[in-house]
Amino acid sequence: MAKVLIVGASKGVGAAIVTLARPEFEVIALSRTQPQGDVAEFHLCDVLTDPLPSIDEPLAGLVYCPGSIILKPFKNLQCQDFVGDLELNLIGAVRCLKHYQSNLQRAHSASVVLFSSVAVQIGMPYHAVAAASKGAVEGLVRALAAEWAPTIRVNALAPSLTETGLSERLLADDRKRQALASRHPMKRVGLPDDIAQAALFLLSEKSSWITGQVLHVDGGLSTLKI
After folding, report:
1. What is the pTM of this model?
2. Residue partners of 212: CB distance under 8 A and separation at least 6
3. Separation CA 59–CA 111 (nearest Å)
4. What values do phi and psi take at 157, rounded to 5?
5. b/e for 28-39, b at 16 or more Cβ within 10 A?
6. How far apart are CA 215 and CA 207, in angstroms?
7. Cα separations (Å) of 212 from 93, 94, 112, 133, 154?
8. Nearest to 149 by CA among 201, 194, 104
């Protein structure tokens, strides 16, 4: 079975990707806490501060999905909020991609999946930090897709609000949940499996002619007004 590396594999969307990917791939998990369930290989690592582990085998895929949610009025934000989010979302991904580029190249047909946000596509109050850092991720996706074609495909997913530990505060009661769900044409918030299924598609050969794209998995929020 082909091997894929999932960075940020222990919680939320990352954990859902691990679960869905296991029947099709050997999963190497890299995260700051132990993932649930069996994986072929696990490395305890903070990608921003720790040395990245060596992997000897080719990698058919790499998914980088550590998450963050910083929602504040711009006047309440500090420069460090932007720096920290950029480090997590962009620099962490760059570190991983540089470290494992040769593993991806040796697979001859590999797929990279990064994460953007619906907030890059549409202007949303209090989302300045997310829009800035994830916008940088989208730029990286397009540049690397051009540079690494045709050997390595590079794409991103851009979710809207998804029900994970990071969003617990936003979905703390039924009134808040309903208000946020009603903003989406599909009238619900996302589930981790919604995003994980899309990630698995981009990892698979079923998406072999897709690269340099940002796939919006957002309940229609970015494109529909109903």
Report:
1. 0.95
2. 141, 142, 145, 146, 149, 154, 155
3. 9
4. -105, 140
5. bbbbbeebeeeb
6. 12
7. 16, 16, 10, 18, 6
8. 104
Instruction: Report CA-CA distances (Å) from 27 to 1, 106, 187.
Output: 10, 17, 33
95 HSE (CA, 13 A, CB side): 18
Q: What are phi and psi of 149, to 5 degrees?
A: -65, 145
**How many angstroms separate the CA atoms of 31 and 46, rounded?**
7
> Residue 171 has which token pair?
């979905």
Chain segment 135-164, per-residue pLDDT in tens:
999 999 999 999 999 999 999 999 999 998
Measured from the Cβ of residue 25, the count of other Cβ atoms closer than 10 Å reads 22
Per-residue pLDDT band at 165 (split at 50, 70, 90): confident
CB atoms closer than 10 angstroms to residue 75: 5
- The sign of the torsion formed by the CA atoms of 93, 110, 31, 189 equals positive
Is 215 in contact with 158 (CB distance < 8 Å)?
yes
